[in-house]
Design brief:
By secondary structure, the chain is α/β, with parallel strands linked by helices. The chain has a single domain (about 5-265), classed as Protocatechuate 4,5-dioxygenase, Chain B, CATH 3.40.830.10. About 35% of the residues lie in helices and about 25% in strands. It has seven helices and ten strands. The protein has a six-stranded mixed sheet, sandwiched between helices. A two-stranded parallel sheet has the order 3-6. Helix 2 (about 90-100) crosses helix 4 (about 145-160). The longest helix is centred in the first third of the chain and has 18 residues, at about 25-40.
């Protein structure tokens, strides 16, 4: 089994140039800590599952070997340009696509110039992958439910089990997804409502105690109440791929807000 490490992290561009002493800086620092941990554990490849990369007709896996460019987030263009550069393990991307297809999921490997990379994957890679590890990128199938996403992740676990490269899985997702409707001072950022904050901390407590089955049962209500990003399917993916195991609690390195939404850096 080559799954060496896993984490859940936020992926909004506010984290790339945070104000000193702000909550954004604390979240970004926790993500760089994740990167240091990967290096110390001998990880050679990072697989990103981002709920900001949405696909409609099944799931996509990035297979273009070398990708670089400059990205501007459509919603946060005022935060400026974000340069990116990825070295993709294209051979393993094909293996993942084949494994998922064999399990009955419509899956396509993407390999052509100019295919857009989502903000969440770029932000996570900028903060975590400072040592230039090989990467993989997996889309979030918009029409897959929570249980289908668990099963999809399980199909990729089989591909990982047959591979020898030490690998980290990084799921990129917000917690509660209710943004402030107007500009705010980043130094005054906070969760947009007490109810969202209460729910976020309740979910984090369950994950920290290893009570993943209990969390699974609450996710539909949590997602509906707090607009958790894409039904919080990032957790479903981690469950399926073997990262979030019952009674093996996650470690919360940081919890905070990004423009009112919930953000946590959780190490599994």
């Amino acid at each position: 089994m080559t799954l060496t490490f896993a984490a859940l992290v936020p992926g909004l561009p506010h984290l790339l140039n945070p104000l000193a002493g702000s909550g954004h800086e604390a979240l970004a620092r926790a993500m760089t800590q994740i990167g240091d941990t990967l290096e110390s554990k001998g990880v050679k490849r990072i697989l990103y599952y981002s709920t900001q990369w949405l696909s409609v007709l099944g799931t996509m896996v990035q297979a273009q070997p070398s990708i670089c460019g400059v990205h501007v987030d459509a919603s946060w263009h005022q935060l400026g340009e974000i340069p990116f550069s990825f070295k993709v393990d294209s051979a393993f991307a094909e293996q993942m696509a084949a494994a998922a297809t064999a399990a009955g999921f419509r899956t396509q490997a993407i390999n052509y110039e100019g295919f857009p990379i989502d903000t969440g994957t770029i932000v996570a890679d900028r903060l975590i992958n400072r040592h230039g590890m090989a990467t993989g990128m997996i889309s979030s199938w918009l029409y897959a439910g929570y249980e289908d996403t668990v099963k999809f992740g399980r199909s990729l676990a089989d591909a990982l089990a047959a591979d020898t490269t030490p690998t980290a899985v990084i799921a990129v997702s917000s917690l509660s997804g209710n943004y402030f409707p107007t500009d705010i001072d980043p130094r005054e950022d906070h969760i947009s409502s007490p109810e969202d904050d209460e729910w976020n901390q309740r979910i984090i407590a369950l994950l920290s105690s290893g009570s993943f089955g209990a969390a699974d049962l609450l996710i539909p209500t949590y997602a509906k109440t707090c607009r958790a990003e894409v039904g919080f399917k990032a957790l479903a993916f981690l469950r399926g791929i073997g990262a979030a195991r019952e009674q093996q609690g996650a470690k919360c390195l940081q919890y905070g807000a990004i423009h009112g939404t919930g953000a946590a850096v959780l190490q599994f």
